[in-house]
Amino acid sequence: MTQSTPVEDERAAYRVATLPPEYGTTRINQLFTRGYNRYIVDGEEQPGDLLTDLERFGTAAFKEDVRANAAEKPFVDKPGILAVLATLSAICVKAHPKFEHAPPRKIQVLYDIRELYVNNLASLLREFGDGSLQQDIAEVLYAKDPGEDGPHPGRVCTGIKEMPKFGDRLYLEIPMAAASRKCLVHAETETGEAGELLTRVENNCLYVPVGDFDTKYREYASRAFKKLLRVQEKNLSEDQMTWLTTNESAITERIDRFIETGHHERIWRDWNPGERTIRVLRDAIRDAPDEVVSLGEFHSAKELFEAVEAYDPEAGWKRDVCNRISSPRSLGNLLASQRDHRSLTIREHRNTNHYRIQESSRGVQPLDVEAIEDLFELPCMANMAERLHEKKPVRKDLYNFARMVMWLPQYQDSDLETIVADLKGVFSRWPWYDEQVTDYQIRYEFSNTIGGDTPLPMNCDNDDMQRYCIGQEQCPYSIWGSLPFPDEMYDQLSGTEGNGNEF
Amino acid sequence: MSWRHATREEIYRYYTEEFPSYVDELPSFITAKGPKQYALAFREPHPVRKDGVPDKDFIRRDTWQTNASGDRTSAAFHDFDDVLEFIRHPARNDPLGRSDFALVDPDLLDKPDPRPNAVYYALDHWERPWVLLIDIDAKTIARERATRVVSDEDGSGDSEELLDAAGILDADPAGYPYAFDDIDQAIEYGFEVRDIFEDDFNAEETMVVYSGQGVHVYLLDSDPAHRYDAKSREVLNDLLQDTYEIPIDPVVTADRRRVARLPYSLHADVCSIVTPIESPNFDVRSARPEVLRE
After folding, report:
1. Which of A203, A147, A210 has its CA nearest to residue A183?
2. Domain named Primase-associated C-terminal: which ranges (chain A) (predicted)?
3. Which percentage of chain A shows pLDDT scores above 70?
């Protein structure tokens, strides 16, 4: 009997797409061929269409709602195409220069692509609507390693059945002789301990709720994606790889934008745990009911812990952070380990520590700055500019302004003359402008370092900036968060004490 | 009524006079060649022939010799009478023969001929899958009861003190870490497990055995559907404990190298016959050997 291949048989394609670790390279490549065949029309390859689709897939994967929705309704409706688009998108990500030396397990965007693939596959499986495929998968998911008596001779899963006796849901039927502890499913409890046993016994079989199948399959599919990716990577010739990375731009641009706008947590897995903790706490405080806690005020670990407990974020990484905080004490320890964080202040109060988390200086609307004038999009800078039409500047205003410009990426490597010239170009619009005075002031500022480090640009909490601030609650921007300052600036920040009010 | 230990002479009398009448009633898989091993426990350690090897109070003997590749060669016991002779005079009839590790011949010692305090057979068999046995021990039940009664808050109290405080040590059989009530409770659980085997696991062949201080429940069907390996047995343990709330000894179920008390052998610490039973109304006092009744 010849086995039908995934190229011509849809069922075979589903089997290989859902269980790639059970198959060899040949079958997996046949699945890819099936996917690629959709981009051949009348014998002509349609690389443009393939490119459009994979860019669409890759960029969509970065959106949390798209990933979540795909679990309900497939984003791509064919297993072969899904396998091709997901693996090619991942290859484009890995080819990004930023990830040249990064291990894939550190790259968050790869996880996003994988999640879209897994969710998409799960909903495709449901739509395929043939229980026998689920049964095949259950054979793999619930199989136990052969023991001293050899492998269990019969099928591991003998059916997917409704068991009215056990309530209205579907159960996987697993003969007791094929059973292992994998089949014992407990309800989840609030305390995280194993709850009531949901697996039932009847007729010398275990009946495992189908929900457990979904959970186990997701874990499996995460590993399965690795295998697909590996085969696809080996499959591509150097020319194909070059074509792909030369022509693809949307995914790369999206990653660049994350980098430019400081959304490091979207790029890197487990990026800066301290920063993540503070961000989640900030969200939890904002979200807390009745304003029991608020940003910028001191609170006990217990109060903050209660806010974390009540907080129910959607993003997976935020949930992970919350889950790691198990008690006021663990929160206290966590904060103590981040005592250098710029937004955190710890104060001892009657032998207990109190903690102040300050308003975000990051993670707000990003601002593209091509020319210095673009800075005036910030409401505070616009206010300052307006005032400077009427009145001479306070000296500090100029210093602050110059520092901000010094840290812009485009001036990082330029010579002093260029910067001075450009700044004078901006200042000359104001009536008080005196070339010599301004020239001197700017050069003086540039020669002024703090222990050899370039002084930090002002942030929103800067007292001198407060005069122009429209109120942080109202402002969609923040200076440190919106401007494309380089990582080194933030590195320098994490080395400084205090809460950012020091200049 | 209370309990006592059987004497050396009583043990010998039991295996010589009364036990042979039960041999025909032994389960069919108990033969000279059936289980992979028989084992004996002694009250006092008995020396072995090789110098420098510690005295033994527990010995296992294979029913077959095996060669280097583990294949069976010749049987140690030709028929069940050989097993019986081994039980009556272990040192004189040691299947290890002249081996260095055989028990020392009692004639060479001042010490008397050892007598088995308990007789066991291996659950692992040559000719059939590994027997499924569930062990329910009256000691466990008593200890749980004592914890409930005394409400030992930190749960770390000394076992003896706890049993004493709950009055268990004084209750009949006096001095034992359980009361007759706890044994009766174990027997009830045993029949409950038998019903579970029959109703939920489609078992046809089951057996409940009063073990002297609790019960053993057997599932003896040997068709493929009942060939439970270690992993299935772990699941069974979890189910019995969590879903059916039966206090069992899970280690016995899942370990194929375990030995079980031979049905109709004597539990010499309580002077009781290990007896297959048909009803939860079984009176444990009736398990006293006839030859020892005053």
Report:
1. A210
2. 381-498
3. 92
Q: What is the pLDDT of residues B160-183, one digit of tens each?
A: 888 888 888 888 888 899 999 999
Angstrom distance (rounded) from CA A164 to CA A169: 8
List chain A residues with CB under 8 Å of B128. Answer: none
Residue A478 has which token pair? Answer: 């923040």
In this predicted structure, the answer to whether residue B21 has a pLDDT above a threshold of 90 is yes
Q: For A26-49, what is the mean pLDDT?
A: 95
Q: What is the CA radius of gyration of chain B?
A: 20
Q: Using one digit for the tens of pLDDT, what is the confidence trace for A170-211?
A: 999 999 999 999 999 998 877 777 788 999 999 999 999 998
- Confidence band of A258 (pLDDT split at 50, 70, 90): confident
Cα–Cα dist A74/A52, whole Å: 18
Domain boundaries defined on chain A: 10-130+219-266, 273-357, 372-495
Q: For B128-140, what is each residue's pLDDT tens digit?
A: 889 999 999 999 9
Domain boundaries, chain B: 29-120, 130-264+272-279
Question: How many CB atoms are closer than 10 A to CB B25?
Answer: 10
Q: How many CA atoms lie within 13 A of A122 on its CB side?
A: 23
Give A291-312 pLDDT, tens digit per residue.
Answer: 788 888 899 999 999 999 999 8
Q: One-letter amino acid identity for A93? A: V
ipTM of the complex in this document: 0.90
> In this structure, what token pair is assigned to residue A477?
């921007």
Q: Cβ separation of A180 and B234 shorter than 8 Å?
A: yes
Q: DSSP secondary structure string, A64-109?
A: HHHHHHHTTS-SS--HHHHHHHHHHHHHHHHTSGGGTT--GGGBHH
pLDDT, position A179: 95
Run of H or E including B208: strand B206-210
Average pLDDT over residues A114-125: 91
The helix or strand, by DSSP H or E, that contains position B41, with its residue range, turns out to be strand B37-46
Q: How close A175 comes to chain B (CA, Å)? A: 7
The answer to whether residues B75 and B63 touch, using CB atoms and an 8 Å cutoff, is yes
User: From the CB of residue A370, how many other CB atoms can be counted at a distance below 10 Å?
Assistant: 8
Distance CA A285, CA A287 (A): 5
Which residues in chain B touch residue A184, judged by CB atoms under 8 angstroms apart?
A: 235, 238-239
CB atoms inside a 10 Å sphere around CB A49: 13
Set of chain B residues whose Cβ sits within 8 Å of the Cβ of A144: 229, 231
CATH class of B130-264+272-279: alpha beta
CA dist., res. A32 & res. A81, Å (int): 7
Query: Quick check: A203 and B225 CB within 8 A?
Result: no
Residues whose CB is less than 8 angstroms from the CB of residue A50 and which lie 6 or more positions away in sequence, other chains included: A36, A39, A84, A88
CB contact under 8 A, B234 and A197: no
> What radius of gyration do chain A's Cα atoms show?
29
Nearest CB among A147, A153, A183 relative to B224 is that of A153
**Gap between the Cα atoms of B168 and A82, Å rounded:** 68
pLDDT at position A496: 41
Per-residue pLDDT tens digits for A401-432 = 888 888 888 887 778 888 888 888 888 888 88
Residues of A in contact with B232 (CB under 8 A): 176-180
Q: What are phi and psi of A299, to 5 degrees?
A: -140, 155
Cα–Cα distance list, B3 to A329, B17, B168, B285 (Å): 56, 22, 14, 9
Tokens of B198: 């029959």
**Chain B positions with Cβ closer than 8 Å to A:** 129-130, 200-203, 224-232, 234-236, 238-239, 242-243, 256
The pTM score is 0.68
CA-to-CA distance for B167 and B179, rounded, in angstroms?
9
Cβ–Cβ contacts within 10 Å for residue A268, how many? 17
Tokens of A91: 């290859």
